[in-house]
Amino acid sequence: MSAFESAPSAGPAASLVLPIFPLPDATLFPHTFMPLHIFEARYRALVTDALARDRRLCVVRLLPGYERHYDGKPAVAAIAGAGEIVKWERLPSGRYNILVKGAWRVRIERERPSDTLYRLVSARRLVDGPPPVDASALVGRVRVACGRLLDALERPRDLLDTLLATDQPPAVIADRAAAAFVPDPRLRQELLETLAVANRLERLSAALETLVDELPDGRGGAG
After folding, report:
1. Taking a C-beta distance cutoff of 8 angstroms, is the pair 160, 147 a contact?
2. Residue 20 in contact with residue 120, Cβ under 8 Å?
3. 163 by DSSP, 3-state: which?
4. What is the pLDDT, as a whole number, of residue 70?
5. Alpha carbon distance 173, 169 (integer Å)
6. What is the mean pLDDT of each run of 10 residues along the chain (223 residues)?
7. Per-residue confidence (pLDDT) for residue 73, from 0 to 100
8. CB–CB of 28/106 below 8 Å?
9. Is residue 58 a contact partner of residue 36, using CB atoms and an 8 Å limit?
10. Is 127 exposed, middle or buried (0-12, 13-18, 19+ CB in 10 A)?
11. 86, 99 Cβ separation under 8 angstroms
């Protein structure tokens, strides 16, 4: 990708008006980055307008059956990830490559009337529940499972030192591990909707351990 422009950080707000970018299998978690290639006319307009305003947008999962209404207003999940465009590149074709930084979980409260090509919603920022008193065991399970998955993929384990650094809050580790290692879009949505940090870590660690157990050639064995 050629040189990007960079955006200043925007502070969070409890109540937001956001353009939505619905996708079938994508989940934007807080504390993570999502690269997107924007080619449809309505979403090129969304990015152009967002860059002229506060650079915020909402990535929301399309619900099953969306194909019948894709060109209109298909149903979307009530809980979504919101963030801001922090880097972007406009291509000669008018398409965009953008990088979105996840900032908040949000609940979509209602769709707003709009004369834009894309959809606008009113959304409220969701706040994580209090962290568990001692999350070390759950975080340890997540790190061990991620390490074994990296081994199976023949990726360096030092990725854990940055992605899942132990000095980060448990909620951040859970979100980053889910974004990096969980392939099932339904489970990713479930984890996005789980505000209780202990429950999120428990569900995540169990899912990662299942992935490890399903690795071929005995790679899921202890090591």
Report:
1. yes
2. yes
3. helix
4. 66
5. 7
6. 41 76 94 96 96 97 76 88 98 97 96 93 94 87 93 85 86 95 95 96 95 72 41
7. 84
8. no
9. no
10. exposed
11. yes
Closest CA to 160 of 178, 146, 174, 149: 146
Quick one: which H or E segment has residue 207? helix 197-213
Measured in whole angstroms, how far is the alpha carbon of residue 54 from the centre of its chain? 19
The pLDDT value recorded for residue 152 is 86
Amino acid at 72: G
The DSSP annotation for 41-53 comes to: HHHHHHHHHHHHT
Q: What is the DSSP string of 104-161?
A: EEEEEEEEEP-SSSS-EEEEEEE-PPPPPS--HHHHHHHHHHHHHHHHHTT--TTHHH
Assigned CATH for 5-126:
2.30.130.40
Per-residue tokens: 34: 């999502």
**pLDDT for the residue 5:** 44
Decide: 205 and 141 in contact? Cβ < 8 Å: yes
- Output the CA–CA distances (angstroms, integers) from residue 196 to 107, 170, 203, in the order listed: 15, 11, 11
Residue 193 class from Cβ within 10 Å (0-12 exposed, 13-18 middle, 19+ buried)? middle
Domain locations in the chain? 5-126, 136-218
The reported pTM is: 0.86
Rounded Cα–Cα distance for residues 25 and 166 (Å): 29
**Residue linked to tokens 């980060």:** 168
| β-bridge pairing 15-23 and 120-126 | antiparallel
